[in-house]
Amino acid sequence: MIVLYFLTLMFFLLILASVGWAFVSFAPWVPTKKSDLKRILRLSDLKPDDTFYELGCGDGRVCQYINRQTKARTIGIELAFPWYLLCLIRKMLNQGKGLHFKLSSFFYINLSEASVVYIFGLPHTLGNKLTDKLKRELRPGTKIISYSFALPGLEPSLIDKPGKNYISIYVYNL
Ligand SMILES: C[S@@+](CC[C@H](N)C(=O)[O-])C[C@H]1O[C@@H](n2cnc3c(N)ncnc32)[C@H](O)[C@@H]1O
To answer: Is the domain defined by 2-173 classed in CATH 3.40.50.150?
Structure first.
């Protein structure tokens, strides 16, 4: 019985640790606004044979939307276990193919297959670590879309902000 209590406690501590690590390293879970999904879709300009990566995909809503609209292969990476579980439920309910989620830090995932990388977090908290990874792994022509925050060390080719009440979306072309 004690072993069972211990294992349950360890399980919950691991869950808490994953949420805490995600929170301090990059960003807490604040989702992309639903009303901005169309803008992200338009800026991504994906074709069905493209691959979309989302770094820190939260509950998976962006990936699911992009996958449904474009049929492109869509891969969300999430570090915090509770949000990852929500992603798996989305995947189960999703009718389409090509929607994938990985439980990991995005620093452990090779991104070289990406056509578009979507980010919503606080990239400056990581210094140049994230930008260096993107520059190292992404192929020329890959698009990076950063919601709300500019990436240090990269010059955006476009800042999408249709009006003063809109959140800025930064687009980079490698
Ligand atoms: C601001 S939220 C954005 C969620 C989602 N991208 C969206 O737009 O709705 C950032 C997410 O990144 C996750 N995260 C933080 N650090 C991470 C890391 N190193 N690897 C993977 N996910 C991470 C957090 O758990 C959180 O869900």
So the answer is: yes
Nearest residue by C-alpha to atom 20 in ligand 1 = 105
Comparing CA positions, the residue from 30, 8, 10 lying closest to residue 121 is 30
| CA 120 / ligand 1 centre spacing (Å) | 7
Q: How far is the CA of 55 from the centre of ligand 1 (A)?
A: 6
Q: How far is the CA of 76 from the centre of ligand 1 (A)?
A: 10
- For residue 76, list its beta bridge partners: 54, 101
Alpha-carbon separation of residue 160 from 48, 65, 144 (angstroms): 24, 19, 13
Span 12-41, pLDDT tens digits: 677 666 666 676 667 777 899 999 999 999
From the CA of 106, give the closest atom in ligand 1. 20
CA torsion, points 48, 73, 138, 45, in degrees to nearest 10? 40
Ligand 1, atom 6: closest residue by C-alpha: 57
Alpha-carbon distance 92 to 88, whole Å?
Answer: 6
CA–CA dist 35, 47 (Å, integer): 22
**Higher pLDDT among residues 64 and 9, named by residue:** 64
